[in-house]
Amino acid sequence: MSFLIRDYDSARDGHRLRQCVVELQEFERRLEPSLPQGEAMADPYLAFLLERCARSSGRILVAEEDNTVAGLVAVLTRVSPEEPDEARQEYAYISDLVVLARYRRRGLGRILLEHAEALARKRGATTLRVGVLAKNRIAHGLYQQLGFNDFQVQMVKDL
Predict the structure, then answer these.
(1) CATH class of segment(s) 4-145
(2) How many of the other CB atoms lie within 10 Å of CB of 112?
(3) The pLDDT value given to residue 1
(4) Which residues contact 134 (CB under 8 A, 6 or more apart)?
(5) Which helix (H) or strand (E) holds 51?
(6) Which of 147, 145, 142 is nearest to 128 (CA)?
């Protein structure tokens, strides 16, 4: 396994980043069919993600193997609490973790998360958060293996 983890380069990786977002969204749609289609949400979501990274001292790290993008992690290193009942301390947040299907089961998700954590620590964060769909048991298990603990569960009821 020889993955290179590097910073996202908009000139080189724009199409690849979009491909990752579409694949992640379609994977999540298989778990939660009410989510929008990947192609329909990709461009607005990418604009949102890049703006969010700029606002929160975030970075997108790309995993590459043989000059091909295999996955990515987006980590926001300075997120301010928004809710009045939250602790008043900034935190880091992993907004996106994507490993393309053909690269799964090789430890790449773990590698990307370790790089995200190292970046958050380097930027002074003392807390790292990540969100996961309740039905995504594989990702949830990986996060637990890496020391994340369940904190809050959001439940949904269709009306």
Answers:
(1) alpha beta
(2) 25
(3) 57
(4) 140, 153
(5) helix 38-55
(6) 147
Give the span between the Cα atoms of 92 and 23, in whole angstroms: 24
% of the chain with per-residue pLDDT over 70: 99
The full 3-state SS of 127-150, as one line of letters, equals CEEECCCCCCHHHHHHHHHCCCCC
In whole angstroms, give the CA distance from residue 129 to residue 127: 7
Low-confidence residues in the chain, pLDDT < 50: none
Domain range list for the chain: 4-145
pTM: 0.90
Contacts of 137 (CB under 8 A, 6+ apart): none
- How far is 66 from 74, CA to CA, in rounded Å? 21
Task: Judge whether 128 and 91 are in contact, CB under 8 Å.
Answer: yes
Nearest to 109 by CA among 117, 118, 99, 100: 99
Q: What is the pLDDT of residue 22?
A: 97
Place of tokens 């290193």: 77
